[in-house]
């Protein structure tokens, strides 16, 4: 059941922040797919701040579920920076900060998920508009994931298209048995400035490992 509680964004794009037209996500989709996105999603993924500046979104975690194997895999992934959810708390705040990286031309993402007890879980990752699919995400220790972008039922969808290890200039594909399986992230507009983020990890042998859903308010510009 989706939580009706939406937290107001406590950080917004500064009045002094210069907004730029961003076509990086637009070029990952066909004209037809881009045209099927809701206007609010189109605007959200066409807004770019200057290098080194950030946009912050605040929301609430609605759903989290793990299989037994998925929970242990998420804990083991903490060795490379904890790129997956690790707790089962719902109704807790989740903060996402997107910062422009002028060095790579990509973005640095920080996700902070509160816990009812103990310290929050923090995930750092970097998106780069490169590679065979045009979009890669790096999560730590050189581990990266290529992402394919699509529009499904007016929802912007990112699906894993292979994992690899970056060693200097060399990119080494990781064997399938060494990866969590297929990862899917969706961004669905809910209207009135709200959107839902979901993450699902499904292994070809063990089935659904991890599911997380959170609802956000977009930053006030």
UniProtKB/TrEMBL annotation:
Record-given protein name: DUF4166 domain-containing protein
Pfam families membership: DUF4166
Domain called DUF4166: residue spans: 37-216
InterPro entries, per database record: DUF4166
